[in-house]
Amino acid sequence: MDRTRVVVRCAECRFEATHDRLRTARETLATHEADTGHAVDWRIESLAPGVERAGADAGVCGLPARANADSPLVDPGDADR
Q1: How far, in Å, CA of 38 to CA of 58, rounded?
Q2: pTM of the entire structure?
């Protein structure tokens, strides 16, 4: 898939919504929880290619052992911090 897909589902009722932006998914989640008192679950099913690349380039939690040290997303000055 070539875009972000976030699914919001409520375990306490039949509510479900799919979004292509994290912001709208979080807003939907917050509104449903506030309106119903239900605990809503959400998951990210896929991400846009640029977001996936940024995650891969950053490595796990931004540790120095990055997947792509030549990435323009890597701050070369961060090793000195």
Answers
A1: 35
A2: 0.54
